[in-house]
Amino acid sequence: MIAPVILPLTGAHPLPHVHPTAAVDPRAELAHDVRVGPGCVIDGPVKIGPGTTLIGHVYIQGRVTLGSHNKIYPFVCIGFEPQHRCYDGSPTAVVIGDHNTLRESVTIHRATKTDQPTTLGHDNYLMTNTHVGHDATLADHCTLASGALVGGHTLIEDHVFLGGNAAIHQFCQVGRQSFVGGLSAVTKDVPPYVIVHDVQGVIGVIGVNLVGLRRSNTPRAAIDALKTAFKTLYLSGHTNPVAADLIEQQIPNAGPGAPLLTEMVRFIRANTRGLCAHAVNRTRSKTNQ
Question: Which domains does the chain have, with CATH numbers?
Fold first, then answer.
């Protein structure tokens, strides 16, 4: 439970773990064991849960909620106004869950509308200089390597890995346990359980995320079912709706892979932006032009 604590903006603080050089807004609510390091600024009705550490020179502004046991490294900025020309100054928010690590110079901007905050779930690891834009949702157990950019209104599902300097276009969705390689610019939705990478200058899907699936102890039979579904979606020449129907027909015989195929079918059918194309097929098409 977070109890309201009144803290002066300068001078000595009643909480033993707040550095005397930190500036904390009287409206802030800090759990009793929150550690606020030197040079930090907490500006606004910020709520911070137990066990969270702000190492130093962290700037949190506005309506921001941080859960428990987060570790925030220097020069992280959370809750500043969205980088959006149409933002009207509304009191929008950022909500961050538990056990997240935000490394140096991460930026997370608040939403453009009051009905839905920019959101991070639990146990995410954001490396240096990563950015989460306004109205974005980052689910649980995701890793963003240094310089990765998540555009506004995007959805990043559980266990996604974004490589260094990867960029996700506004309004895109990246499906569960997919892998986006470094320097990849993604402008279409990425289905779950696949790899997106650069092949001879063409960025697209190249296969199933076998390494990620094996590391999560996915049964071999489930991986085999996903391989078959991948061929149906990307290598058989079917339209996405037809591929979804055919993958759905595979579910009764997929054994432990049935939930994964169900997730893939759900993603395909819910898609409105179009799916990331197959990189090798796009490369061949480009070469033949």
Answer: 23-153 (2.160.10.10), 215-274+281-288 (1.20.1180)
